[in-house]
């Protein structure tokens, strides 16, 4: 984040485990499907960072870029629409690929006890033991993540103005057009789920919580609901 420009924020996500060519191809395909479902006119294209990179640079939304370095996948995203450019993301990507010695080895587990209540349900979502945990407080809000070598699931939260609040309204209002239709689920004060499994709910305290998994095309709605119900007390 640029202290002089609080809205100028770049999100940097780095995979903990190595990502193979086959996995990268699946992740790109999932991004292409998601972009179409969100109704963007722009298409996913090559990311200017080699053959295993891809990007989206929509005219009316924030750009993002995905690439690999040392077999670790990196996703860069401008957080606020209109507050950054694709050229800026490419410049940051080049800087990351030239870090002396490469990216440092990531610890497999960073755990917050509040997330433990969701661990059993999360392992049902990913279909096995979670060998990776990434729990954190992000701007004071609890985020939890579990991963295996083949799949991952994560829970993110925020208040009014956050991505989670935006997604809650989007899924709430989803119809049968270009977006997946949604339906009510019994989670929190009010919960909604898309047919692809993506779930968002609102708490009585005004927090918004989203749950998603990767690969997107393997996300199953019922296990996601079970995880939402298991983790919801952490936000009450």
Q: Can you characterise this structure?
A:
This protein has 236 residues and is an alpha+beta fold. Helices cover 25% and strands 28% of the residues. It has helices spanning 21-37, 86-97, 119-126, 163-173, 221-231; strands spanning 10-14, 45-46, 54-56, 64-69, 72-78, 109-110, 132-134, 136-138, 141-147, 152-158, 182-185, 190-194, 199-202, 208-214. The mean pLDDT is 90. The protein has 5 helices and 14 strands. It folds into 2 domains: 10-97, no CATH class; 109-235, Protein Transport Mog1p, Chain A.
Defining traits:
single chain; 236 residues; alpha+beta; 2 domains; 14 strands
Q: Note the main sheet.
A: 9 strands, mixed
Rg of Cα set = 17 Å
Number of strands: 14
**CATH class category of the largest domain:** Alpha Beta
- For the record, the count of structural domains works out to 2
The DSSP helix count reads 5
Q: Architecture of the largest domain, according to CATH? A: 3-Layer(aba) Sandwich
What's the rounded overall pLDDT mean? 90
End-to-end C-alpha gap? 30 Å
Specify the overall morphology: globular
For this structure, the CATH topology of the largest domain is Protein Transport Mog1p, Chain A
> Would you identify the regions where 5 or more consecutive residues have pLDDT less than 50?
none
What is the element layout, followed by pairings?
Elements (H helix, E strand, L loop, with lengths): L9 E5 L6 H17 L7 E2 L7 E3 L7 E6 L2 E7 L7 H12 L11 E2 L8 H8 L5 E3 L1 E3 L2 E7 L4 E7 L4 H11 L8 E4 L4 E5 L4 E4 L5 E7 L6 H11 L5
Parallel strand pairs: 6-7
Antiparallel strand pairs: 1-5, 2-3, 3-4, 4-5, 7-9, 8-9, 9-10, 10-14, 11-12, 12-13, 13-14
Helix pairs in contact: 3-5
